[in-house]
Amino acid sequence: MVMSIKMAPPLLIILLMIQGVYSDGWGVSYSSSYICALKGSSVIMSCTYKHPHRYKIKKVFWTKTLVLNHVEPPDLFNDPEYSQRIQYLGDKQQICTIRLNDVTQKDSHKYYFRFITNKDNGRWIGTPGVTLNITDLHVESPESVTEGDTVSLTCKSTCNLTDRTTFIWWKNTQSLTERNNKLLLQSVRREDAGRYSCAVHGHNLTSPHVDLNVKYTPKTVSVSMSGSGEIVLGDSVTLTCSSDSNPPAQISWFKGSTYVGSGEIYSITSICSDHSGEYKCKSRNEVGEKYSAAVTLNVMYSPRNVSVSMSDSVTLTCSSDSNPPVLNYTWFKVNESSSVGSGQSYSALQSGFFFCVAQNQHGSQRSAAVLVHVNVQFWRIIHTVIVVMLCGIVAAFIILILTCCMKRKNEKPQSKDYVDTNEAPNSISCVYENVMMAHPSSDDREPIVSTHVYENLTPYRNML
CA 219 to CA 249: how far, in whole Å? Predict the structure, then answer.
């Protein structure tokens, strides 16, 4: 009888491992043989146990190891990895529940309850035990997202989370309103790019974040130019193209419609007038492309290629290439220090070699001298014509004066032989207006006209 009792426990252990039920008053029963828990959470492994009444419980504990070769398995309460996190919630009668806090991936294992009585043959371990699987949360997202797409992010775990589980979504550090395990982003925008993570309400566990990378065509493409003020011949200029795009764009440079280079920066050293023009950049990525507005490169330089052309033998015209245009033209005759004229055109009055000097804000340049041969006979004819014209003008003026005098005479006719000297002075003929008269006598007699004055006068009537 004693031998059968001693042999019974090993047999019962085998039966429990197969059936997981009580046998002959000995046994351990678990509420769940499989538990899936989230990393960082607390896990409760519930169980009850039973033994014959004549046996008294001496020790209870949990272990991760079965009895092998009659070697007692280690107690988790004595294991440094568990001692601070495990809590026994049972008693020494029939409840053997424990709580394991702040679980990690290392805690994924099988756990067994073990109790020892006061009899040598009264030791028991409950099989098949509890399988604990510790899982993490993670977010599934598409690998490639383009602006305008509809995107679905899913919070997943290897645990079979119930439909009643409440999820929490985060974008960067901001909590979102979605409470399901799927986060739907319709017509995604570039502003939706960021770090997304999820969590389960009531658990101190947040999934690792995933980066939502939203691709979009280049936007706000612009060109900036180094330096300020006027660009002068010989200067260096740097053009920089900036754009907002994802993925980063490739930059091409154009002068007008001609391709001139690539890269974010386009530099021109020792600039010349041929570099003047409109420049723009094109930003292109796998999604699309966009051109910037054009910027004008205006190169300033002093006059050059100054030359003189001649027309009608004496008229000279000065021309040049400059930016800005020439401010003034000055004319010189060779071997003379002073200028002989100004303005773009000049008429030479004498023969000789003449040249012009063109000047703007950035400098000046002189032309080559040209020979002018003035025709002397031509100028003599011109001089004669001028003299004749002046004489004609003087003659016409004299005739006009005489005509005026005749009109005044005819307005009041007088006798042929008598002139009333008592008449008002303004009735005297215009021929006599400038004649000096003798002093009158004091007795108001007729005035005496100096005969000396009249000797040189021609009678008026003879002039008619």
Answer: 10
CATH match for 2-135 among 2.170.120.30, 3.40.47.10, 3.40.50.150, 2.60.40.10: 2.60.40.10
What φ, ψ does residue 155 adopt, rounded to 5°? Answer: -90, 120
The domain locations on the chain are 2-135, 138-212, 231-297, 302-374, 385-463
pLDDT in tens, 310-335: 988 789 999 999 999 999 999 999 99
Whole-angstrom distance, CA of residue 415 vs CA of residue 431: 16
Q: Which has more confidence, 391 or 282? A: 282
**Phi, psi values for residue 397, rounded to 5°:** -65, -40
Distance CA 373, CA 80 (A): 120
What's the mean pLDDT when you consider all of the chain?
A: 82
For 163, 231, 327, the CA distances from 362, given in Å and listed in that order, are: 82, 11, 10
H or E element, residue 347:
strand 345-347
pLDDT score for 395:
87
**Could you tell me which residues are beta bridge partners of residue 340?**
none
Compute the chain's Rg from CA coordinates.
Answer: 62
By C-alpha distance, which of 90, 71, 203, 78 is closest to 137? 203
Write down the CATH superfamily of domain 302-374.
Immunoglobulins (2.60.40.10)
